[in-house]
Amino acid sequence: MDTLDEWLAHCERLHPKNIELGLDRVRAVADRMDLRFGCPVITVAGTNGKGSTCAMLEAIALQAGWRTGVYTSPHLVDFEERCRIHGEIVAPEALVPHFEQVERAREGVSLTYFEFTTLAILSLMASSRLDLAVLEVGLGGRLDAVNIIDADCAVITSIDLDHMEFLGNDRERIGFEKAGILRAGRPAIVSDPMPPQSVVDRARELGADLWRFGHDFNFSGDKLQWAWAGRGRRYAGLAYPALRGANQLVNASGVLAALEALRGRIPVTAQAVRNGLAMVELPGRFQIVPGQPVLVLDVAHNPHSVAALAANLDAMGFYPTTHAVFGAMGDKDLAPMLARLGPLVDRWYFTDLPTPRASSAADLMARWQAGETRKDVGGSTHADPLGALQAAIAAADPADRIVVFGSFYTVGGVLKHGLPRLHATHLAN
Fold this sequence. Notes:
There is one protein chain. The protein is of the alpha/beta class and 429 residues long. The chain has two domains: 4-279, UDP-N-acetylmuramoyl-L-alanine:D-glutamate ligase; 287-428, Protein-Tyrosine Phosphatase, Chain A (Alpha-Beta Complex), CATH 3.90.190.20. It has helices at residues 4-14, 24-33, 50-63, 92-106, 113-126, 164-167, 171-178, 197-206, 248-261, 270-279, 303-314, 334-341, 361-371, 385-395, 408-415, 419-428; strands at residues 41-45, 68-71, 83-85, 88-89, 132-136, 153-156, 187-190, 209-212, 218-221, 226-229, 234-238, 287-289, 294-298, 322-327, 347-351, 378-382, 401-406. An eight-stranded mixed beta sheet has the order 4-3-2-5-1-6-7-8, sandwiched between helices. Helix 3 crosses helix 9 (248-261), helix 7 runs parallel beside helix 8 and helix 12 (334-341) packs across helix 13. The longest helix is centred in the N-terminal third of the chain and has 15 residues, at 92-106. The chain is globular, with a radius of gyration of 21 Å.
């Protein structure tokens, strides 16, 4: 196998399940690979806000002059988006030798697609002479493959109900799984303003250095700027992060707490903080694409993140009509998601997605019809996200708003076709 695509196809064939939580198999292979990092590692877990937290950590560290490596998942368009070295997405060919290394060390062990690819990316990062590694947990924490690496600092973002078939049916059980990334005597940054008690209990049981939002760090602000205060350090007069949405201040507060906790090893200046927050980018997180009509892209795919999306859409101001392109996995709690966004949406475009885990567009539409109370709202089904978006663009007036949200497959299915071109086509017509 000479290409990344060939290796990814190999990984898809290896294991009968997409997800099999547990560290024994992946740790055995990692031990044979002698996988270890020679730099501080920040591991980020949580239901929502993980990607934004990783992006802000990376942006500030880069501005401070540190060589960073970031692993996030899933990707939007191309697999190699999952790994960035010094701010740049890695080249596909750079990953191939590390897939080969995993295969040599595997010795017949059955790894899932996520486990195999995680080991390959961690191998690349470990060999990249990093000053700081930032690792996003894929699912849960305690039994996720990323957790084979001992974090020097753990960050737990907001916790809500998602992936309940794997993690448990309430926030306390889910919180316990997320708290699996914590390590004894090391900083544990909890940026959820109301964390499950299980997270706090686990940190104290381990003797972790617990930093809690509202206790050990906090923020304040007005419409123009904000300020952060932690243990013995303050930042005042900060511009709002370039990532949009009110929830980003909570994420940014956890980021600054993590960097403060590691200041002895990875010091950052106030100017690096200001520049990093001003320049951070992350596609698909309340991403507003200017044009007529305006496009909003958001990978909100559970009730908590959809509630944040609704609040952010409310804050955008008035639009005559809001069109919503929506596709989601079959295991999602759809009713509260549809109910929360329902009052803001005047026309729905439900889409199939290219994975057997997804709900069909027809099922999504049926679920919406069962709960919709407004009589003036229409809906339609489409074979793919691009077709759904094109239908929305054709129906929209220039002053309208189109929201594309749900699964990474939904937003990624639009992004891969190039949004500026879609806008230009619409305006030309």
